[in-house]
Amino acid sequence: MSIELRRIGHDNFYEICQLQVAKNQLNHVDSNAISLAEANFMDFPWFRGIYVEDKPVGFILVNADISADKFFLWRFMLGERLQSKGYGRKAIELLSSELIEEFGASTLYTSVVDSNKGPKGFYLSCGFMPTGNLVAGREVELSKTLGPQT
Q1: pTM of this prediction?
Q2: What is the pLDDT of residue 32?
Q3: Phi (first) and psi of residue 25, to 5 degrees
């Protein structure tokens, strides 16, 4: 399985925007088009398309605030028919490696609505742990230590 994170530009913007999550996940993640539009208003956007065998399968958006050494996974999505194939975990591993290599990041944060049908279980299985903080008063903050564990 050849999986990679690719920069998004004029040539692949549309195919990334066409990816959709399952209908029951629509309230858990905004569309990639909205996420890419939001990136224009972020101070430190870092985003990539997730590709498997040269085909787009997902999207990642991180707020990479290097001045505060805070890296927050803002959006993560895999297309509806591409879930439960191991692509998500591999993409999180690649993301971790790229953040370490490019920025020297040591921790990655994200947040989720704490519900039975939400993505919290996925993130926990990828090594994220609850921090005990709430984001926007309603989302549970999770963090993952990047790099070698001691």
Answers
A1: 0.87
A2: 83
A3: -105, -5
